[in-house]
Amino acid sequence: MPEFRLYNTLTRRVEPFAPVDGQTVRMYTCGPTVYNPAHLGNFRTFLFEDLLRRVIRLAGWQVEQVMNLTDVDDKIIRKAAATGQDILQVTEPFTALFHQDRRYLRIEDAERYPKATEHVPEMIELVERLVANGVAYTAEDGSVYFAIDRFADYGKLSQLDKRELKSGARVAQDEYAKENAQDFALWKSAKPEDEATGAAWDSPWGRGRPGWHLECSAMAMKYLGETFDLHAGGIDLIFPHHEDEIAQSEAATGKQFARCWCHGEFLLTDGAKMAKRIGNVANVVELREQGISGTVYRHFVFNAHYRKQLNLTEDSLEQSRAAVNRIGAFARRLGEATHGTPALVVVAERAEQEFYAALFEDLNAPEALAALFTFISDANRELDIAVAEPAVGDTAALERARTAFRLMDSVLDLVPEQLTDGELADWVEERLAARRAARERRDFAAADAIRVELTERNILIEDGPAGTRWRRG
Question: Which reaction equations make up its catalytic activity (predicted)?
Fold first, then answer.
């Protein structure tokens, strides 16, 4: 088995990675802010992290993953105030939707999903440590700020020179950070809208609420310890969020916060970063409505290296749909086969070696997919020979091929669901109803797309005076 290597944002190098205890990778991943549905750009990051945890297990280690849920922040409070709700009324439906969407995309459960609102005491304790250590100060309004000039290593993750951060300067940072770029908020004094929406807590500095960066440090250290193995997220979180996490955590403990940092690149639509503010957002609900399966989106995401930008287009999704159908057809054939050829053993072992080599070299999912499809082509050739020449039948070789395929799919998870007869009938009727509705509104492109979708499932339809009939092909 090759050595497992990852690109560490902190060192800007691909380097060997292993858990410090040799057994369990303790991993923190930044989760969604639950005030709206997570968009497909968010889920590109979550899928990269799903691949990461599966490859960690492939390497023989266990995983302890903590993914936070940000359920108190400026955007949530604004939405709650505008709708006359408290913050939990805003966040709970979107938390449930996040988990529903995550499961649709076959993203494995993290071991913990802590919520920010349930960890305010830990956050207050962390701020108290920072004040005691002389790296945080209280402003006149009762807010508490981290003084970056008192932390010598500030900027080491983003490779930002803090001398360039002039007082009052505007830098590319999120709306949570103070306008004065030198310092960032640890604790924000309560405003009337905070009190009205249930977003204020008692603290030694008066009523207030935690800063966004503080939340992750407090929850990560509570569940994973003051130093843990791996921190992952989207590339947009490097500065200021992850930079500030490092500063406040290491200034409090005097210890390294995370040993390795991994960041995934943006998802683009028509060449622009997917973001709610520019309106080019697609989400998982829309995928479902368009009949695009979770396996299709998984394949689309894995078709690019996690550190390269990925452009979402209709053509790319159609190519992924065809690829997933091919995987499903092979899975059925392999499951129904009665024997193979001796050469299947060589095919399977070569595929596994190429698969390991790709994923253990900084999660190279495109090369892993190439290994899978080469295996499918080679295995199909051997299965054809086994059918044509029964005398060469080898059941042990067939089982070896099945083992290799199961291993690869345990990581990529791309085999489409095989519906039972009853489930298939329900699904076909639902798609036919959607097709009728599309034709009634004269959306013939949508109707044709549904017909193609049915054909890809080997369902043939016939339109007649009595309606539409269907049968298996």
Answer: tRNA(Cys) + L-cysteine + ATP = L-cysteinyl-tRNA(Cys) + AMP + diphosphate
- Decide: helix, strand or coil at residue 32: coil
Q: What CATH number is given to the structural domain containing 348?
A: 1.10.730.10
Q: Is 30 annotated as a binding residue?
A: yes
Final residue in a domain of this structure, among 365, 385, 412: 412
> From CA 428, how far away is CA 432, in angstroms rounded?
6
Instruction: Check residue 419 and give its pLDDT.
Output: 61
CATH of the domain at 53: 3.40.50.620
Global pTM?
Answer: 0.85
As a whole number of angstroms, the distance between CA 211 and CA 145 comes to 9
| Span 202-250, pLDDT tens digits | 999 999 999 999 999 999 999 999 999 999 999 999 999 999 999 999 9
Is 241 annotated among the ligand-binding residues?
Answer: yes
Domain count, the chain: 3
| Per-residue exposure over 155-170, b if at least 16 CB sit within 10 Å of its own CB, e if not | bebeebebeebeeeee
Q: What separation in angstroms does the CA of 254 have from each of 27, 129, 186? A: 20, 11, 18
Q: Are strands 144-147 and 136-138 parallel, antiparallel or unpaired?
A: antiparallel
Percent of the chain having pLDDT more than 90?
A: 73
Q: Residue 245 annotated as binding?
A: yes
| 275 band by pLDDT with thresholds 50, 70 and 90 | low
Domain end point (choices 245, 264, 283): 264
User: Which residue range(s) make up the domain with 248?
Assistant: 5-264
Give the Å distances, CA to CA, from 327 to 202, 369, 381, 413.
Answer: 56, 11, 15, 10
Q: Which two tokens stand for residue 111?
A: 């071991």
Q: What whole-number distance in Å separates Cα of residue 44 and Cα of residue 309? A: 10
Tokens of 286: 């829309």
> Are 397 and 430 in the same domain?
no
Q: Give SS3 for 449.
A: helix
Q: Two tokens at 97?
A: 């939707």
Length of the chain: 473
Q: Are residues 351 and 458 in the same domain?
A: no
pLDDT tens per residue across span 59-118: 999 999 999 999 999 999 999 999 999 999 999 999 999 999 999 999 999 999 999 999
